[in-house]
Hints:
Mean pLDDT: 91
Number of helices: 8
Order of helices and strands: HHEEHEHEHEEEHHEH
Helix content: 25-40%
Number of domains: 1
Structural class: alpha/beta
Distance between the termini: 30 Å
Radius of gyration: 18 Å
Shape: globular
Amino acid sequence: MLVPIRVLALVIWVVSMPLVFMLCSLFRVPRHTELPHVFHAGMRAIFGIRVQKLGNATETQPALYVSNHISYLDVIVLGGLKAFFIAKSEVANWPVFGQLARFQNTLFFERSAGKARHQLNAMQNHLKLGKRLTLFPEGTSTNGTHVVPFKSSLFEAANLGDDYPRVAIQPITIAYTHHNDLAMNQAQRDHYAWYATMPFGAHFAKLFSLKKVDVKVVFHPVCYLDEFESRKECAEHCYKLVADTLDELMAAA
């Protein structure tokens, strides 16, 4: 019975919540901007995702959250953050998660070196307005047991110049650790991690039959770009924090 119940719940939730948000926005219902966080909480409940937070997300504005990337589920896991996500342009056309991404006001970027300046400008325009962004600087997803070195190019977005507040950069570690209250092996983690050549449709469909998954999210201390000699040094600092913590969480699971 679990699969049909989840499918029905997902359809109702994905169809109804954007409509509720649109109506609340139209009629200026107080605190309607918090509805995307309610949406993500509902998605976590539907898929049995239990999130344990270690530390606190900075409330500084503007801010750039930088996290390791394991799955499209990371968006649901981090959905409580009051931030815009940054995703590759293909995500906009994905079933369910494309809708989710648009509902979260995601910035969609093409993977092209020629688009780098446009991407930086878009990020900086948001940060200059005091907004927060969530970035997956590995540029890819992994199997959940390691972190790929962070690409430093988009860290330059935190350099707004002297006329604007400093951008708080907060590294975040995500770890999928337990399935049905037992430590995961890699075969189980692959039901959640989406990487390499895994077909999206089959991977997503499998989620409906799975039980509870525990995810740890660690919020590391904030740093600032001007504390480092270069953006590459800043990216390396954030990468090391995230990677070392993931190693520790994997060892402790």
